[in-house]
Write a structure and sequence with these properties.
The protein has about 90 residues and is mainly alpha-helical. About 70% of the residues lie in helices and about 0% in strands. The longest helix is centred in the middle third of the chain and has 23 residues.
């Protein structure tokens, strides 16, 4: 990627700072404790889906997060925008 490439470590902006954070035992303990809570909340939220189009939004968000490795904020904003669009075209939301 060149001298100013983006990625872990190396020449990206803040790369060495990110590596220092990742090596911090307190931060590792925090994320180790937070992971089960996040996973535990995902199941009830997924079970609360009521309409077929909501599963499509979930699939698009999952692909964005996992396959494309994009940010969480963008996925949430995109899912919200799709929900607003669904309401605007008259799809059931509640």
């Amino acid at each position: 990627m060149g001298a100013r490439g983006r990625g872990r470590g190396g020449g990206g902006r803040g790369g060495r700072h990110f590596d220092a954070l990742r090596a911090d035992p307190r931060l590792q303990a925090f994320f180790g404790g937070a992971s089960p809570a996040v996973a535990g909340s995902a199941v009830p939220l997924a079970m609360a889906l009521q309409h077929a189009w909501q599963y499509g939004v979930l699939a698009v968000a999952a692909l964005r997060l996992l396959a494309a490795r994009r940010g969480v904020v963008g996925a949430l904003l995109g899912a919200g925008a799709l929900g607003v669009l669904a309401t605007a075209v008259g799809w059931p939301v509640g």
